[in-house]
Design a protein that fits this description.
Layout (H helix, E strand, L loop, with lengths): L1 H12 L2 H4 L1 H9 L5 H16 L1 H10 L10 H28 L3 H18 L12 H9 L1 H13 L7 H6 L8 H24 L3
Helix pairs in contact: 1-6, 1-7, 4-6, 4-11, 5-6, 6-7, 6-9, 6-11, 7-8, 9-11
Amino acid sequence: MATDQFISLASGQVLQIPMTKPLYVREISNKMYSPAAYFLASWLAATMNLLFYPVICASINFWFLGFNDTSIYNFLNWVAILVIIGISGSSFGFMFGCILDNEQQGLLVTNLIFTILQFGGGLFASLGPGANEVVKVIGWVSPFRYACEKMLRVMLNGVWYVNIPCDLLKYNNNDLCFPILASMAFGFFLLSGSAYLIKARSI
């Protein structure tokens, strides 16, 4: 579910800047608005629109997954983790849309990176004892790792064995997952803005 939210929103965002390039080149050349204003408006409009997806998914699947804790607090935690991984994916896709000029290149590069990051999330390889050192390093920078950990903890909240699978998978960040994911989303946003503004200078 974490990969679905991240990849879906990233794949939508990676197309935004390359597909509208002829439009913004013409309008920025005519001094209709500044590059920073266009970047912020594009990112915000697309992200706010795409965020309906994680909110709707979380609001539906929470009630069908058999959570032990169905309190409003646990529900809001579930919605929050899907929203924050969605924002991270949105900013990640936008970043590569700003770096690469061709939408097909953007999709291919992001798909490759998705696959690599999934190793760090514990989806293709274990992060537990005996894990490959490369996989461990990818795990430190993979948003999937932190989203999967928080989602697992929310799902198992209230059961006595919640720490057993988390310890086995080396999911030991707990309350740090939200700030780490937020930092990643903000970092992707800053990188995308920097890449966009640097390219805008040549227009």
